[in-house]
């Protein structure tokens, strides 16, 4: 029998998948990304061990969606996609690369919000 937490996580994942289906093509077009890298979602123990909401390791994007609104997960994904486009793998706090990814992701999310007000 499914626990309440598993039920809520299943609903949240369905909602996240629906939002990502709308967001990914939008961000991909804006950033002119021809081929998306693999995107991996972590849950459970692995999500609790992550030290950030997302990361780009040069090969794949890893996202931690647990307990987060789907649009917030999209913002993290967008931030990591900027790193992909710029080929940044150093995400040190306050670095030029990190500041650029934050700024560009913010612009894209505002444009996405205007195009998809029902999600906000």
Oligomerization state of this entry?
A: single chain
Instruction: Quote the average pLDDT.
Output: 88
Q: What's the shape?
A: globular
> Any idea what the CATH architecture is?
2-Layer Sandwich
SSE run: HEHEEHH
The largest sheet has its strands arranged as 1-3-2
Unreliably modeled segments: none
The H-level CATH homologous superfamily, spelled out, is Metalloproteases ("zincins"), catalytic domain
Please outline the major beta sheet: 3 strands, mixed
Count of individual helical segments: 4
Q: How many structurally independent domains?
A: 1
- Find the CATH topology: Zincin-like
Strand content: 5-15%
Tell me the Rg in angstroms.
15 Å
Helix content: 55-70%
Please give the number of β-strands. Answer: 3
Key traits:
single chain, 120 residues, mainly alpha, Zincin-like, 3-stranded mixed β-sheet, 4 helices, globular
Per-chain topology:
Elements: H1 4-31, E1 39-41, H2 44-49, E2 54-56, E3 61-63, H3 70-86, H4 96-115
Parallel strand pairs: 1-3
Antiparallel strand pairs: 2-3
Quick take:
The protein has 4 helices and 3 strands.
Q: What this model shows, in words?
A:
The chain is mainly alpha-helical and 120 residues long. The protein has one domain: Zincin-like (2-Layer Sandwich), CATH 3.30.2010.10. Helices cover 59% and strands 8% of the residues. It has a 3-stranded mixed β-sheet with strand order 1-3-2, with helices on one face. It is globular, with a radius of gyration of 15 Å. 21% of the residues are buried. The mean pLDDT is 88.
């Amino acid at each position: 029998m499914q626990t309440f937490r598993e039920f809520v996580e299943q609903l949240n994942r369905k909602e996240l998948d629906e939002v990502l289906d709308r967001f990914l093509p939008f961000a991909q077009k804006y950033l002119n990304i021809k081929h998306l890298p693999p995107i991996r979602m972590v849950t459970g123990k692995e999500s609790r061990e992550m030290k950030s909401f997302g990361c780009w390791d040069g090969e794949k994007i890893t996202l931690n969606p647990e307990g987060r609104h789907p649009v917030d997960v999209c913002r993290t994904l967008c931030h990591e996609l900027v790193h992909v486009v710029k080929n940044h793998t150093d995400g040190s706090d306050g670095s030029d690369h990190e500041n650029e990814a934050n700024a560009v992701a913010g612009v894209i999310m505002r444009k996405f919000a205007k195009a998809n007000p029902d999600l906000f």
